[in-house]
Design a protein that fits this description.
This protein is an alpha/beta fold. The chain has a domain of about 170 residues: P-loop containing nucleotide triphosphate hydrolases (Rossmann fold). The chain has a six-stranded mixed beta sheet with strand order 6-7-8-3-9-10, with helices on both faces. Strands 2-1-4-5 form a four-stranded antiparallel beta sheet, with helices on one face. Helix 3 packs across helix 4 and helix 4 packs across helix 6.
């Protein structure tokens, strides 16, 4: 099941340049939270901080408090954090030389899973959860992950993230490289997954945020300007800057 995320005074830097200026946000468990805002406002940096991916960039640092469930991510190893918090990126990134099966099983093997029948079971379950099983079940071990279409590759990456049983799923513009039909499938999938996972999605597509998210945070120049129920953000925002962005006056 998903868990809540509590963010307190989160700051992030690239070298000497401060990218996030003290973000405070409570993300509820088992639901979808969208992060919107113009390019370069800190959206991706924020979600990359939530699973310690930010610090993989040379010279990048972060400080503040991020608690997932009741555990501080800064007091755990980054590997343990990423087990609990999966991530799906903008561009599908299946392992090109691996079969579809091995792509999904990669994290399990990394975590020491040696039981073949258990692995088979988890691979099938993850592919079913990502609505891909029926399309790939006959070529699981014959075809490489890279042979799939863009939309299928993205669902494969979601299956790979789900296989290690995370509590939180971060999605950084997961449909921006996809056609409308594939985008629709990803959105349907998000709708189903929110029953069991906490999902945070960065999107530049405001219609998408309105369709999939219960809560939305609006970022601008490294600050969280407003965070509220999605309906309120889109129909009656409290801050003029949010309204200006949503009505297309900038961004």
């Amino acid at each position: 099941m998903g868990v809540g995320i509590n963010v307190r005074d989160l700051k992030a830097w690239f070298g000497a340049s401060e990218a996030l200026h003290g973000i405070n946000m409570n993300v509820g468990a088992n639901g979808v939270t969208a992060i919107i805002g113009p390019s370069g406002c800190g959206k991706s940096t924020f979600v990359r901080c939530l699973n310690r991916m930010h610090e993989t960039i040379p010279g990048a640092t972060m400080k503040g408090e991020v608690t997932v469930g009741d555990v501080s991510i800064l007091e755990q190893s980054a590997v343990d954090v990423r087990r609990r918090i999966g991530m799906v990126f903008q561009k599908p990134n299946p392992f090109p030389t691996m079969s579809i099966y091995d792509n999904v099983a990669a994290g399990l093997k990394l975590n020491g899973m040696r039981n073949r029948s258990k692995t088979d079971e988890i691979v099938e379950k993850s592919l079913r959860q990502s609505a891909l099983w029926e399309e790939v079940k006959d070529t699981l071990k014959k075809k490489s992950g890279a042979s799939l279409s863009g939309g299928q590759q993205q669902r494969l990456c979601i299956a790979r993230a789900l296989a290690v049983a995370p509590e939180v799923l971060l999605m950084d513009e997961p449909a921006s490289a996809l056609d409308p039909i594939s985008t629709g499938k990803i959105e349907e999938l998000i709708e189903e997954l929110k029953q069991n996972y906490t999902i945070v999605i960065v999107t530049h597509n405001m219609q998408q945020a309105a369709r999939v998210a219960g809560f939305t945070g609006f970022f601008l120049m490294g600050n969280l300007i407003e965070f509220d129920k999605t309906e309120k953000i889109f129909t009656n925002p409290s801050d003029k800057r949010t309204e200006d962005y949503i009505t297309g006056r900038f961004g």
